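Translate structure to sequence.
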């Protein structure tokens, strides 16, 4: 992608001033004394992606750096002093434990700084719900933490990234956002980290919070909150990743017609300490799969029943006798969020009852 092409799509890149106190680039407005300070952590994704032309569907994620993203939306500098830092520059399909832990540690460092009022994280949409939920469980601050991204690359005709970024900064800079846990801002909607999910492969309005609804809305920087998430999060959470270099392995296995126990046994053989089953209907399985899962539960593998269905709860002791079989019910959590929560729960030894408590509280 040529410098000239980017020049047609973005505003001129401003001169970066290296911040001596926080270790990242300061890109604030000239009159910054009364503006809040918002740290911008970039991880890559479609919002930083580029395509061969402005009407090409295929693109490469993570082509723009944090300074280019910030300078492409100069209007955001009227809302806050923006301090940018590049955590990674990948497509979110390649999100890893290494990046998660680096991101979580940096969020906690920034959250402890009195001069930082809020944090914006740019992220690809493929796994944004997992990262948001992970941070919702391990961030140790009540300050606003807002993830945003886009469905169209930065070079696209009618790219959605700039306005999403502007609105994310507005939410992060708003004092009323504090205490809401980690938020995700996309397409004028404010989602709670525990509630949102991606529902379309390509549509701009892909993210929904189908069970609990939106936390609020943001229209051209005007923020309105509808509710406060009720589950435990951030500063109330019992989980910590301080000093961690890895997380326990948990695999997701989808249920299907004529399923046997081969994949269940193979996952455990590969090192899984926990399993999440994306069951049919209300978290159901074939008799053969139930037998295999129950056998692993007796060996100490924590087994969670979720559902492959897009919307709905999986409650305890409805389709299956979870008490007898030793299973955990995912309740309102989809398979991917169940995996995130179970990995953190398994950082210390727990019985099934305690894991079920965690699924109820978070």
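Result:
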């Amino acid at each position: 992608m040529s410098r000239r092409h980017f020049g047609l799509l973005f505003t001129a890149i401003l001169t970066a001033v290296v911040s001596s106190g926080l270790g990242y680039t300061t890109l604030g407005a000239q009159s910054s004394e009364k503006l809040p300070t918002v740290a911008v952590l970039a991880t890559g994704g479609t919002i930083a992606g580029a395509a061969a032309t402005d009407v090409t569907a295929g693109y490469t994620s993570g082509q723009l750096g944090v300074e280019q993203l910030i300078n492409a939306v100069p209007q955001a500098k009227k809302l806050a002093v923006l301090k940018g830092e590049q955590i990674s520059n990948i497509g979110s399909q390649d999100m890893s434990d290494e990046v998660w832990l680096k991101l979580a540690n940096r969020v906690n460092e920034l959250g402890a700084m009195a001069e930082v009022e809020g944090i914006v994280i740019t992220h690809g949409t493929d796994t944004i719900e997992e990262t948001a939920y992970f941070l919702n469980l391990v961030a140790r601050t009540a300050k606003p933490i807002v993830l945003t991204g886009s469905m169209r690359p930065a070079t696209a005709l009618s790219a959605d990234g700039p306005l999403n970024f502007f609105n994310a900064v507005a939410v992060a800079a708003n004092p009323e956002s504090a205490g809401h846990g980690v938020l995700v801002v996309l397409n004028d909607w404010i989602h709670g980290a525990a509630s949102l999910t991606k529902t379309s492969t390509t549509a701009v309005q892909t993210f929904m919070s189908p069970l609990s609804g939106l936390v609020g809305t943001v229209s051209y920087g005007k923020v309105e909150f509808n509710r406060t998430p009720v589950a435990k999060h951030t500063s109330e959470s019992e989980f910590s990743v301080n000093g961690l270099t890895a997380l326990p392995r948990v695999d997701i296995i989808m249920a299907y017609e004529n399923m046997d126990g081969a994949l269940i046994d193979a996952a455990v053989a590969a090192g899984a300490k926990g399993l999440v089953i994306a069951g049919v209907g209300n978290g159901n399985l074939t008799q053969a799969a139930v037998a295999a899962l129950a056998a692993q539960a007796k060996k100490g593998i924590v087994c969670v029943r979720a559902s492959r269905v897009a919307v709905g709860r999986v409650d305890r002791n409805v389709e299956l006798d979870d008490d007898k079989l030793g299973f955990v019910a995912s309740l309102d959590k989809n398979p991917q969020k169940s995996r995130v929560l179970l990995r953190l729960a398994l950082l210390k030894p727990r019985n099934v009852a305690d894991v079920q408590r965690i699924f109820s509280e978070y």
